[in-house]
């Protein structure tokens, strides 16, 4: 939904690009004067700006996410503008030619008038079919770039899990024995913690926590990544966040 808001807001940009290209085309192939300027509501434009601000942290998180958003929003803008043009043509046909089918079925109508009505009706049906096809393309557009931008789904998943606190990239863990003895990392403790056989591990990645009775942690030893499942009763995950000034 977010990408559709942004794409629709970019319709005027698509129009200006077409108008700019049109100036360099031969006079007999120019279509700029026939293109309508796409009107967008202030609510749509304002909503798009707000959504961009809301996800700016996501956009700078990884270049693949930025690339995905740019490509997807651009294609949505292009195809939604084409959909906009077709809808205008359909509306124009309905306003100008309200009784095309009645004319075709009218036995008193001349053959010339019937031929005219059939031609206009066929054009109207073509615009309707084009609108349906474009709508289908619009639905599929957010999925298409995922086949060309590797691991984009995993990047989104990791970001979502980190934002919801299910996953933490690097944090400090307080782990009780015997599970603390299973982790091949430097560990420290304090006099108070040692009484409960609790040890401190810093810079450990939490892959999954907060759901169920266990916490999944991950750490590296050389070039090997190890994972261990620890019951929640034996682990405390330290969470920190930056306070706004």
- Counting H and I runs of at least 4 residues, what is the number of helices? 9
Shape: elongated
Q: Please list the strands of the largest sheet in the order they lie side by side.
A: 4-3-2-1-5
Strand content: 15-25%
What pattern of helices and strands is seen along the backbone?
HHHHHHHHEHEEEE
Task: Catalogue the unreliable spans.
Answer: none
* Helical proportion, percent range: 40-55%
Largest sheet geometry: 5 strands, antiparallel
Termini gap? 32 Å
Description:
The protein is 50% helix and 16% strand. It is built from 9 helices and 5 strands; from the N terminus they run ααααααααβαββββ. β2 and β3 form a beta hairpin. It has 245 residues and is of the alpha+beta class. The model has no long low-confidence stretch (mean pLDDT 80). It has a 5-stranded antiparallel beta sheet, with no helix packed on it.
Brief summary:
The chain is α+β, with helices and mostly antiparallel strands and 245 residues long. The protein has nine helices and five strands, in the order ααααααααβαββββ.
Secondary structure topology:
Layout: H1 2-9, H2 11-22, H3 42-54, H4 56-59, H5 63-96, H6 100-105, H7 111-140, H8 152-163, E1 168-176, H9 191-194, E2 198-208, E3 214-221, E4 224-231, E5 235-237
Antiparallel strand pairs: 1-2, 1-5, 2-3, 3-4
């Amino acid at each position: 939904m977010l990408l559709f808001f942004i794409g629709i807001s970019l319709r005027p940009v698509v129009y200006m690009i077409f108008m700019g290209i049109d100036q360099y085309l031969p006079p007999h192939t120019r279509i700029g004067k026939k293109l309508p300027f796409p009107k967008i509501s202030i609510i749509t434009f304002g909503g798009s700006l707000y959504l961009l601000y809301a996800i700016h942290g996501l956009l700078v998180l990884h270049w693949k996410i930025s690339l995905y958003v740019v490509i997807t929003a651009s294609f949505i803008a292009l195809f939604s503008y084409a959909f906009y043009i077709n809808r205008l043509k359909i509306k124009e046909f309905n306003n100008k030619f309200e009784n095309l089918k009645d004319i075709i079925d009218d036995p008193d109508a001349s053959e010339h008038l019937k031929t005219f009505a059939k031609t206009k009706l066929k054009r109207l049906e073509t615009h309707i079919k084009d609108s349906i096809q474009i709508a289908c393309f619009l639905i599929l557009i957010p999925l298409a770039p995922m086949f060309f931008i590797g691991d984009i789904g995993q990047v989104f998943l990791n970001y979502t899990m980190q934002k919801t606190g299910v996953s933490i990239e690097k944090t400090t863990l307080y782990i009780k024995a015997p599970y603390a003895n299973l982790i091949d990392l430097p560990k420290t403790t304090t006099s108070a913690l040692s009484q409960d056989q609790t040890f401190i591990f810093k810079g450990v990645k939490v892959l999954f926590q907060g759901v169920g009775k266990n916490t999944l942690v991950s750490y590296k030893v050389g070039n090997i990544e190890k994972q261990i499942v620890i019951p929640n009763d034996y682990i405390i995950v330290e969470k920190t966040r930056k306070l706004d000034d």
